[in-house]
Amino acid sequence: MLDRGEVRINFCRFYAYSNKKGAFIAYLYYMKTLSFNNKEDAEFVKVLRKRVNRYFKENNISKYANFNMKLKTLAMIAIYFIPLLLILIGVFKSIWLVLIMWSIMGVGMAGIGFSVMHDANHGAYSKKQKVNKSIALIISLIGGTSINWKIQHNVLHHSYTNIEGHDEDISFEPLVRLSPSQKHYNFHRFQVFYIWILYSIMTLYWFSIKDFDQIKRYKNKDLLKGQGITFNKALLGIIINKIIYVLVLIALPLILVDLPWWQTLLGFGLMHVICGLFLSTVFQCAHVVGETEFFQTDETSSMENNWAVHQMKTTLNFAHKNRLLSWFVGGLNYQIEHHLFPNICHIHYRKISKIVKETANEYKLPYHTKPTFFKALKSHMQLVNRLGLGKV
After folding, report:
1. In the chain, which ranges are E strands?
2. How far is CA 21 from CA 10, 142, 146, 226, in A?
């Protein structure tokens, strides 16, 4: 039997270091129901942290954003807002040129999600938490909410990756079956086709319904306390964010742009479709693939693996040599490094990946990787198809 109290303390130390006070407190609540065996492979974790820390110390490098990261931030914001400005001041009259602008905004919206707000919400953009909190608010400008995102992503997904009933990133029942332990329905045999529709409307759903649904659910699970916010304050923040977003992204174009209303709504929808497809495929290709493992808790709500080893078993890297892709997706093609060190800015993942891989090989632990994004996507779709057919 595992010493669950000791396991809880050991892992909370690691996660508190990664995500500061908010995620730490929220994790304490959730650890009441699930424990990792952090006595197992403890040396691997200790050695890996030591080597990564030594890399930054010996090279006199900060773990946070550097000049290149700040330039990238400006670039992503520009890709998103400059097309909007051009639309609003009426530079383009043709519907096709306007739709191209909305499409570019979709790319910028995904880029902000990948490369800016993601690091900030992890507390990895700056060593100053006020800076992280300020930059994290940019999620509001793309239709999301920081509080909900931190709980779903930082706390639930990063803590319980690919664990049925805990990781909300694989919880789309009954529409989609993304884990072998989830119930299989006959209509799932078509999910390899219709899942693309769900991916394309992901951010539209997030903007319109998901945030309100989540905030009620997180209140019931008492997870809002971990973020130091009350339900009423969080709900008010969501409502204000949505109103501002609608005013800027829908109302202003409808008022200022001399185009039929439906064309503006078409452009808005196109932006979300492009962003949704980018975000969905990149994140799903890192975890829901044939190479990774899925888990359930046992009757004692205990996991057999060390938390860090669990992350390596449930995560896949891809396209290490594609520097442009890596730049756009915020280093999330180095998802293993991100899950092990979410407190480190993604701009450093390529360098520390060599340390992680060498250490994993030394301790005979898995280090899943695919040479290209399309091979990772193929693995994802093959697994989605097998899950849909009930073959796994």
Report:
1. 316-318, 368-370
2. 16, 26, 15, 8
Question: Per residue in 188-230, pLDDT tens?
Answer: 999 999 999 999 999 999 999 999 999 999 999 888 988 889 9
Q: Report the DSSP pairing between strands 316-318 and 368-370.
A: parallel
The gap between the terminal CA atoms of the chain, to the nearest Å, is 30
pTM exceeding the 0.85 threshold for the entire prediction:
yes
Instruction: Show the DSSP H helices in 177-251 as ranges.
Output: 191-200, 202-205, 211-220, 231-246
3-state secondary structure of 370: strand
Identify whether the C-beta of residue 282 lies closer than 8 Å to the C-beta of residue 11.
Answer: no
Query: Distances from the Cα of 231 to the Cαs of 147, 227, 235, 238, 263, in angstroms?
Result: 11, 11, 6, 11, 37
Beta bridge partners of 368: 316
Residue 73 token pair = 């931030």
Interior CA angle at 315 toward 186 and 43, to 5°? 140
Q: What burial letters (b/e) apply to 243-276, b meaning 16+ CB within 10 Å?
A: eebeeebeeebeeebebeeebbebbbebbbbbbb
* pLDDT tens track for 301-336: 778 889 999 999 999 999 999 999 999 999 999 999
Task: Write out 86-129 in H/E/C secondary structure.
Answer: HHHCCCCCCHHHHHHHHHHHHHHHHHHHHHHHHHHHCCCCCCCH
Neighbours of 345 (CB within 10 A): 21
Cβ proximity of 341 and 352 under 8 Å = yes
Is the separation of the CB atoms in 166 and 34 below 8 Å?
Answer: yes
124-157: per-residue pLDDT in tens?
999 999 999 999 989 988 888 889 999 999 989 9
Which residues, in sequence order, are bridge partners of residue 174? none
Query: How far apart are alpha carbons 257 and 250 in whole angstroms?
Result: 11
- How much is the mean pLDDT over the chain? 89
Query: For the chain, where are the alpha helices, taking DSSP H only?
Result: 4-30, 42-58, 67-88, 95-112, 118-121, 129-136, 146-149, 158-159, 191-200, 202-205, 211-220, 231-246, 252-256, 261-284, 307-313, 323-328, 335-340, 349-362, 373-389
Percent of all residues in the chain with a pLDDT value above 70, rounded to a whole number: 91
